[in-house]
């Protein structure tokens, strides 16, 4: 009888440890599943937009099911919002990592222009996601605390850069950091989103290596001319 009690106690202890291990593992499993869903959703939304993206494809690519996807993210629209927020958070975090405050103003601005161009080239899904968001009038970004916070920090960073340039006498005063950022984004964004039609219209391969280098040089020169003191 005693041996049987000991055996039962051992079995119960093993079961309790196993249950505890599962409880400990669940948060990690949940986080891993959410990361897979977000990664799969990013690909699907970038390829097909919000309207064309299929939840069952996202779930399958994430190695989960639609029930878990809805459990974590609610519905396709809220999942799209999260993907957009993560996309903006990624580029803004990378911009902050440039440590522009530690560079001379002109070097810092050139670094930002170069980074923006390189980021668009390396992350074409970002442009695709922004295009999709704008097709829906950016309703998924309205009221986003995440977007508001990171955007304000970015504008503040550019404003500090401009102020330092004015103080050093290399930039003219009165340049709006928001307008400057729009221009930096636009001269890279337009070129890349219209690369196919542009290559036909202008009879040159806009994505050839030498063409990309010339475009980057043009972008840098354009932005610096906009802000330099007379």
Topology, pairings included?
Blueprint: H1 2-52, H2 55-61, H3 66-73, H4 76-96, H5 105-122, H6 124-135, H7 145-168, H8 177-193, H9 195-201, H10 209-227
Helix pairs in contact: 1-2, 1-4, 1-6, 4-7, 5-6, 5-7, 5-8, 5-10, 8-10
Report on this structure.
The N and C termini lie far apart (98 Å). The protein has ten helices and no strands. Mean pLDDT is 89; it is low at 1-25. The chain has helices at residues 2-52, 55-61, 66-73, 76-96, 105-122, 124-135, 145-168, 177-193, 195-201, 209-227. The protein folds into two domains: 1-74, Tetracycline Repressor, domain 2 (Orthogonal Bundle); 75-230, Orthogonal Bundle (Tetracycline Repressor, domain 2). The chain has 230 residues and is an all-alpha fold. It is globular.
Outline of the structure:
By secondary structure, the protein is an all-alpha fold. Helix content is 80%, strand content 0%.
Q: Which superfamily, in CATH terms, is the homologous superfamily of the largest domain?
A: Tetracycline Repressor, domain 2
- Strand count: 0
CATH hierarchy: architecture of the largest domain: Orthogonal Bundle
Total tally of structural domains:
2
Quickly give the structural class.
mainly alpha
Structural Rg:
25 Å
- Main sheet makeup: none
**Helicity, as a percent range:** over 70%
**Count of helical stretches:** 10
What's the overall geometry? globular
Q: Which runs of at least 5 residues are low in confidence (pLDDT < 50)?
A: 1-25
Element string (H = helix, E = strand): HHHHHHHHHH
The N- to C-terminal Cα distance equals 98 Å
Mean pLDDT: 89
- Any idea of the CATH topology of the largest domain? Tetracycline Repressor, domain 2
Percentage of β-strand residues: under 5%
| Level-1 CATH class name of the largest domain | Mainly Alpha
């Amino acid at each position: 009888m005693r041996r049987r009690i000991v055996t039962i106690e051992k079995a119960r202890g093993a079961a309790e440890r196993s249950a505890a291990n599962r409880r400990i593992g669940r948060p990690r499993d949940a986080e891993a599943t959410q990361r897979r869903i977000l990664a799969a959703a990013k690909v699907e939304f970038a390829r097909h937009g919000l309207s064309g993206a299929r939840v069952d494809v996202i779930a399958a690519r994430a190695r989960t099911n639609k029930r878990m996807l809805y459990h974590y993210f609610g519905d396709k629209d809220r999942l799209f919002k999260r993907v957009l927020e993560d996309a903006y958070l990624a580029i803004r975090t990378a911009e902050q990592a440039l440590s522009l405050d530690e560079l001379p103003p002109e070097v810092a601005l050139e670094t930002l222009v170069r980074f923006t161009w390189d980021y668009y080239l390396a992350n074409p899904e970002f442009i695709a996601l922004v295009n999709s968001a704008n097709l829906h009038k950016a309703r998924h970004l309205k009221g986003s605390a995440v977007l508001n916070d990171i955007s304000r920090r970015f504008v503040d960073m550019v404003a500090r850069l401009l102020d330092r340039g004015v103080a050093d006498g290399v930039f003219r005063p009165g340049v709006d950091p928001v307008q400057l950022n729009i221009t930096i984004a636009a001269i890279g964004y337009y070129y890349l989103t219209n690369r196919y039609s542009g290559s036909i219209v202008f009879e040159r391969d806009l994505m050839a290596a030498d063409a990309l280098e010339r475009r980057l040089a043009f972008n840098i020169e354009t932005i610096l001319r906009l802000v330099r003191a007379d």
